[in-house]
Each structure stands twice: as C-alpha cells, then as structure tokens.
Amino acid sequence: MKFFFLLLFAPFISCTNPFVNPIRSEPPASAPSVFKCDYEKQKIACKKIIDSSWPQKIKQLTNSICDSLIPCWYGTAWNFYGTSETPGKGNIACGYFVTTIIRDAGLPVKRVKMAQCASEEMIRNLCEKTSIKRYRNKNLNEFVAAIKLMGYGLYIIGLDNHTGFIYNDGKEIYFIHSSYATPKCVIKEIANSSSVLASSKYRVIGKLKI
After folding, report:
1. CATH assignment of the domain containing 139
2. Average pLDDT over residues 82-101
C-alpha cells in the first residue's frame, strides 16, 4: 500500500515531469499526452519580432520570450556547472539559463562570459542603466511592491549567489530561474512565494535591454 501511494505521488514532486505547471503543485486538468515545444520555431518567432518595425515590438518580444521561449525550459535540471543549450536535455546553471534565453531570443550577448561573471556585471551589461536598482536587507513583500512600481517588463535579477529573471506582466510578479533549491530545475514562481528570493539579503535588478 505504501509503495502504491509513492507511485501516485511521484509525478507531483518530479522536476522533470513535463506536465507540472511550475506555478502550481498539480498538473493541469487537460494535460497533453506528450509535451511538445518547438524551440527552434520560438527562436525564429522572436527574431522576426526583432527585425520588424511593429509599434508594439518591445511588448511583443517580451511576451514571446516569457510565454513561448522560456516555457520550453521548464523542468530542465539545474547543476552548478550546467551549460546545456537544449531545453529538457542535460542541465543548466542559473547564469547560463539567463544568457542562453537572451541569446536565443535574438538579443546580443556574450553567452559564456556573461554567464560566468558576477550577476551585478551581467546586469550592468545587459540592462537599461537607468532601470538598475539595488536593495539591501529589504523584506520580500517590500521588494516585490517596488518591482510592481517599475512596471511591465522582463528584468534580470542578481542575488547573493544566484541570478534569474523577474517578469512583471502588469498584474503579477514572477521569478523565473534555474533553481538550486528544490525542485532543482528551471521553474516559474510567484515572486512573493519564492524561498530563494526571500533568503537573499542583497538584490540588484535591471530591465533587460530590448
């Protein structure tokens, strides 16, 4: 009986289960039988937006990155030395996750150099200088409230020993990262509920240059 219970419970704790919604603890009601994400197609779509002269280009690219490109990586395993360039295969460190997404979205970045440097340096190189803000010893609720005031957009965040994306969709603030904490994979969390965000005493954030 105990073994049967573990079999039932396993899909809900497995980081590599493709049907787990990274924001929720249960699978969607209508999960597909096979998880599909055409990563190359998503990369081409981002490039098309960059090359366009559409008036809402920045918002369209941000939406494409956050809603189509990044989700391909959900569940990909974290490892401190991970350098995977393929979603769902191998493992990826937090810095490499950030720079790989930026590169694959079609934006200029020195993928390896920026992935290996301090997050503060990464943010200075890849974010709008006027948007960069630093917070020390600020509780998580106050920090998230400050991010809401910064407005819609995709941000890079640097913590004491970690980095990732903050996505402000205009309604909610999300933390998207290759997490060293359980479940140790690429996840999307509501920022206010992130133990990794909460545990960091120093946070530096900047809006990604698009």
Report:
1. 3.90.1720
2. 98
